[in-house]
Amino acid sequence: ALKITDVCINCDACPAECPNEAISAGDIIYEIDPARCTECVGHYDEPQCVAVCPVECIVKDPAHDESQAELQAKYERLQAA
Ligand code: SF4
Ligand code: SF4
């Protein structure tokens, strides 16, 4: 999964781009639900939130380091839900 760092300026550009509805406004900055973020695997070739973020504050989450196969499996679980 990816994560949003505290550089986020709360511009609200990213939630609508996420195919997994993984992004929401948190108490201070926007947040990514790691259970729903597939790094866009299954939907797009590149993370859509990263593509629209004006301040480049979305990075790999070291606490949720996943392989392509794991991300694909998460995508399939979300599709089946
Ligand atoms: Fe959503 Fe894709 Fe960003 Fe993950 S990488 S939060 S799935 S837009
Ligand atoms: Fe924050 Fe970037 Fe999302 Fe804007 S696009 S809300 S700056 S993470």
UniProtKB/TrEMBL annotation:
> Which spans of this chain does the record mark as coiled coil?
none
This entry's Gene Ontology molecular function terms read: 4 iron, 4 sulfur cluster binding; metal ion binding
Write out the entry's keywords from A to Z: 4Fe-4S, Electron transport, Iron, Iron-sulfur, Metal-binding, Transport
**Domain 4Fe-4S ferredoxin-type per the UniProt entry, residue ranges:** 1-28, 30-63
What PROSITE patterns does this protein's entry cite?
4FE4S_FER_2
SUPFAM superfamilies associated with the record = 4Fe-4S ferredoxins
Q: Which cofactor does it need?
A: [4Fe-4S] cluster
Q: Name the domain of life.
A: Bacteria
Name the UniProt record assigns to this protein: Ferredoxin
Give the species this sequence originates from.
Roseospira goensis
Q: What is the lineage of its organism?
A: Bacteria, Pseudomonadati, Pseudomonadota, Alphaproteobacteria, Rhodospirillales
